[in-house]
Design goal:
The complex is a heterodimer of chains A (113) and B (111). By secondary structure, chain A is mainly beta. In chain A, 0% of the residues lie in helices and 51% in strands. Chain A is built from no helices and 11 strands. In chain A, strands 2, 4, 5, 6, 9, 10 and 11 form a 7-stranded mixed β-sheet that branches. Chain A has a 4-stranded antiparallel β-sheet with strand order 1-3-8-7, with no helix packed on it. Chain B is mainly β and 111 residues long. Helices cover 0% and strands 55% of the residues of chain B. Classes of the chains: A mainly beta (113), B mainly beta (111).
Chain lengths: 113, 111
């Protein structure tokens, strides 16, 4: 039982490059979310999904795309990376409607040059 | 518009003493509050929560207090241990599962 896994752990991109951050869970949780953590800003919600085939925008969605084709996977795509997207990205899962059962992955540290 | 604020970026306490971490919120629709703990290079982990129908919730050394009239909650850790050194995030939810997080407070417990 791996819980929530994120790959890669670290990534350096050049401005304008695209990439996909992977998130997978084996807990059969309906809700999945992507957050970014920046110094002095806490965790900000990028996109979330309440189930396979359903996604919605969070607080800071611009520059990111998501899809949810299966319960297990929730990839985050950066279409054209910008230095402002340098951050630590966390994927989280939870049982729908039960806020305190949210589980976070270990994070991906992304640097955009 | 920061709806959940943790005004102290850092806090340092001696081992064995009480740690008090504070959090203020502005959205009166928030009805569920949580504290998460985060070690370096790891994701946040759930610590303790409180519903707006309560004013206190305890779990071992951790107690969360909620003052709805002041829109303020606090996390008390007694006694503090060096292993409690981490970043603590306050979070709030308004009737659903989307959480709004505060900026975090770095707690350092000195031996």
């Amino acid at each position: 039982n791996a819980g929530v896994t994120q790959t890669p752990k670290f990534q350096v991109l050049k401005t304008g490059q695209s990439m996909t951050l992977q998130c997978a869970q084996d807990m059969n949780h309906e809700y999945m979310s992507w957050y970014r953590q920046d110094p002095g800003m806490g965790l900000r919600l990028i996109h979330y999904s309440v189930g396979a085939g359903i996604t919605d925008q969070g607080e800071v969605p611009n520059g990111y795309n998501v899809s949810r084709s299966t319960t297990e996977d929730f990839p985050l795509r950066l279409l054209s990376a910008a230095p402002s997207q340098t951050s630590v990205y966390f994927c989280a899962t939870q049982l729908a409607g039960l806020t305190d059962t949210q589980y976070f992955g270990p994070g991906t540290r992304l640097t955009v040059l | 518009d920061q709806q959940v604020k943790q005004n102290s970026p850092s806090l340092s306490v001696q081992e064995g003493r009480i740690s008090i971490l504070n959090c203020d919120y502005t959205n009166s629709m928030f009805d569920y509050f949580l504290w998460y703990k985060k070690y370096p290079a790891e994701g946040p982990t759930f610590l303790i929560s409180i519903s707006s129908i309560k004013d206190k919730n305890e779990d071992g050394r951790f107690t969360v207090f909620l003052n709805k009239s002041a829109k303020h909650l606090s996390l008390h850790i007694v006694p503090s241990q060096p292993g409690d050194s981490a970043v603590y995030f306050c979070a709030a939810s308004a009737g659903g599962s989307r959480l709004t997080f505060g900026e975090g407070t770095q707690l350092t417990v000195n031996p």
